[in-house]
């Protein structure tokens, strides 16, 4: 699917994933866990990489096979590798510090595999999550 | 979440977000919660019993709501988190920071102390 460079698209992505999960017999909880990863990564792209970029293009594909969910997320923003991104400098009180870099922490907690490559001016993040047995 | 479900129990404001707090609706939660804290009790419980999903954007608006409540002399805690929401609260440490209670009643009691 093709996404507009707009944070409102995140809601549509999670809705789509819920429908996809239901059609594929994936438990709603597992579909939402994967949706959480996509939420965090798309939010990063829209809020940082593609901010102020009317030519911003994001594409997403999702597949399910052999007990795994896989996705590829691509965008034409500046190079950004979530694997090597440094967490933001901790500051503020204990709760502020807990939230710094939290999005990527959530992503790494959920995923079994996360790869990044940059080809032809496009960031491509591929990811995989093993589904828990029902 | 144009109208955030809520109720006032004694001296506490109980917020009852349903389904999801994701990046696309976190701002609506923040605005509604802020108006409710302005107008009502400053002891706030987030009742997560109907919540299936929270992202880091959702945690961020819970944090801003907590700061607002605290600045007004109150506080915030969380009750009845399930499944994915419980997992995200644990990964972030928010369960320890704000407290996670098995019931709304226990959450209110903890704020009164």
Describe what this molecule looks like in 3D.
- The complex is a heterodimer of chains A (134) and B (113).
- Chain A has helices spanning 9-24, 28-49, 94-99, 102-110; strands at 2-3, 58-65, 68-75, 113-119, 122-130.
- Chain A is of the alpha+beta class and 134 residues long.
- Chain A has one domain (2-130): Histidine kinase-like ATPase, C-terminal domain (Heat Shock Protein 90, 2-Layer Sandwich), CATH 3.30.565.10.
- Chain A has a five-stranded antiparallel β-sheet, covered by helices on one side.
- In chain A, strand 2 and strand 3 form a beta hairpin.
- In chain A, helix 1 packs antiparallel against helix 2 (28-49) and helix 2 (28-49) runs antiparallel to helix 4 (102-110).
- Chain A is globular, with a radius of gyration of 15 Å.
- Chain B has one domain: STAS domain (Transcription Regulator spoIIAA), CATH 3.30.750.
- Chain B has helices at residues 26-39, 56-71, 83-92, 94-98, 104-112; strands at residues 6-9, 12-15, 19-21, 43-47, 51-54, 75-79, 100-101.
- Chain B has a five-stranded mixed β-sheet with strand order 1-2-4-6-7, sandwiched between helices. A two-stranded parallel sheet of chain B has the order 3-5.
- In chain B, a hairpin with a 2-residue loop joins strand 1 (6-9) and strand 2.
- In chain B, helix 1 packs parallel to helix 2 (56-71).
- The longest helix of chain B is centred in the middle third of the chain and has 16 residues, at 56-71.
- Chain B is globular, with a radius of gyration of 12 Å.
List keywords for this structure.
heterodimer, A: 134 residues, alpha+beta, Heat Shock Protein 90, five-stranded antiparallel beta sheet, 4 helices, 25% strand, globular, B: 113 residues, alpha/beta, Transcription Regulator spoIIAA, five-stranded mixed beta sheet, two-stranded parallel ribbon, 24% strand
């Amino acid at each position: 699917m093709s996404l507009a460079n707009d944070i409102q698209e995140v809601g549509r992505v999670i809705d789509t994933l819920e429908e996809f999960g239901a059609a594929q017999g994936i438990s709603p909880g597992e579909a939402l866990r994967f949706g959480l990863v996509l939420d965090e990564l798309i939010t990063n792209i829209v809020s940082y990489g593609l901010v102020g970029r009317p030519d911003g293009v994001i594409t997403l594909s999702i597949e399910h096979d052999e007990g795994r969910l896989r996705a590829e997320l691509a965008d034409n923003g500046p190079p950004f590798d979530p694997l090597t991104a440094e967490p933001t400098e901790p500051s503020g009180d204990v709760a502020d510090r807990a939230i710094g870099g939290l999005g990527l922490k959530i992503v790494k907690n959920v995923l079994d595999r996360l790869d990044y490559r940059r080809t032809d001016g496009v960031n491509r993040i591929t990811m995989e999550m093993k589904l828990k047995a029902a | 979440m144009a109208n955030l479900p809520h109720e006032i129990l004694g001296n506490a404001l109980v917020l009852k977000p349903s389904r999801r707090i994701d990046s696309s609706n976190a701002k609506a939660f923040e605005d509604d919660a802020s108006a409710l804290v302005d107008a009502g009790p400053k002891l706030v419980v987030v009742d997560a019993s109907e919540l299936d999903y929270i992202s880091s954007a959702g945690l961020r608006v819970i944090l801003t709501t907590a700061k607002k409540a605290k600045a007004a002399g109150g506080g915030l805690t969380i009750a009845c988190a399930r499944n994915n929401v419980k997992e995200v609260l644990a990964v972030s440490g928010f369960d320890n920071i704000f407290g996670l209670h098995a019931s709304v009643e226990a959450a209110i009691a903890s704020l009164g102390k």
